[in-house]
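Module 6 notes. Inverse folding takes a fixed backbone as the condition and produces residue identities as the prediction. Think of it as a translation problem where the source language is geometry and the target language is the twenty amino acids. Below is one complete input and output pair. Work through it position by position during the lab.
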């Protein structure tokens, strides 16, 4: 086994079998969006009821820029195939651990159960009565074989940047993600949707809880509008 595995930091929310999401920093909040929207009129809070109505009005009418003044910074650990979907969200900042610089740990996502291929939505999966015990054995054996090849290549002097080529996309990676509330709502809409892959959905659900705790009025208004 390579190096020391990075444990979930204090306050992190566990996601999947070995992943996590941790809010590292946060700036802003519901009132920041209210104040940003009202700065054009030179006024700030007008009491909870009117402030909440303003937030709903802004979201309903596409006046999203006041939400850009609230910023979340997360530390995330997730499988490579999840991060590939995540990083398609361009309106955010990313810094990821480098497998050129550090040796990859033997940490890979092992699903609790296997879903079957959806034949209608060709991108999706459905619950299926599959032989989970046998499939887990096969899946894990493939991972073990590739990790052992990785170590053999390193031992033979191959550079980390080349040896990693034998590792599967279930390998866990880590990154810092800084994203404003507007972009985060877009991410949550897309990645909590039932069409998103279940694994990234689990991360989106964990992040939605953090959003709800930090910007409860905005979250409630957003949910209400989505439910219409
Ligand atoms: C269920 C699902 C399936 C998907 N399947 C595929 C797939 O098969 N193949 C694939 O390649 N991708 C796929 N994607 C990724 C998807 O196409 C988006 O790239 C991803 O969801 C990021 O969304 P976004 O562009 O809204 O986010 P961001 O990149 O964060 O952008 C936020 C918003 O900024 C604006 N914006 C950002 N960049 C530009 C730009 N260059 N020009 C104009 N406006 C911009 C847009 O309004 C955009 O909505 C899938 C996504 C989901 C949720």
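Target side of the pair, the amino acids:
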């Amino acid at each position: 086994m390579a190096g020391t595995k990075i444990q979930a930091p204090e306050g992190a929310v566990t996601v999947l079998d070995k992943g996590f999401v941790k809010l590292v920093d946060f700036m802003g909040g519901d009132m920041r969006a209210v104040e940003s929207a009202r700065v054009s009129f030179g006024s700030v809070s007008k009491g909870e009821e009117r402030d909440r109505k303003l937030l709903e009005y802004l979201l309903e009418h596409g006046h999203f820029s006041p939400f850009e003044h609230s910023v979340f910074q997360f530390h995330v650990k997730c499988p490579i195939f999840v991060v590939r979907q995540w990083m398609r969200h361009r309106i955010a900042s990313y810094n990821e651990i480098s497998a050129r610089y550090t040796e990859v740990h033997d940490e890979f996502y092992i699903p609790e159960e296997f879903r079957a291929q959806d034949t209608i939505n060709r991108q999706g999966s459905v619950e299926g009565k599959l032989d989970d015990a046998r499939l887990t054995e096969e899946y894990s054996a493939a991972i073990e074989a590739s990790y052992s090849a990785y170590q053999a290549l390193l031992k033979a002097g191959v550079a980390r940047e080349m040896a990693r080529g034998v590792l599967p996309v279930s390998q866990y990676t880590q990154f810092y993600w800084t994203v404003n509330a507007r972009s985060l709502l877009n991410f949550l809409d897309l990645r909590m949707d039932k069409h998103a892959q279940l694994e990234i959905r689990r991360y989106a659900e964990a992040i939605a809880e953090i959003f709800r705790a930090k910007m409860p009025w905005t979250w409630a208004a957003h949910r209400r509008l989505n439910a219409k």
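Reference fact for the lab report: The beta strands are 13-15, 19-27, 71-79, 93-96, 116-117, 125-126, 172-180.
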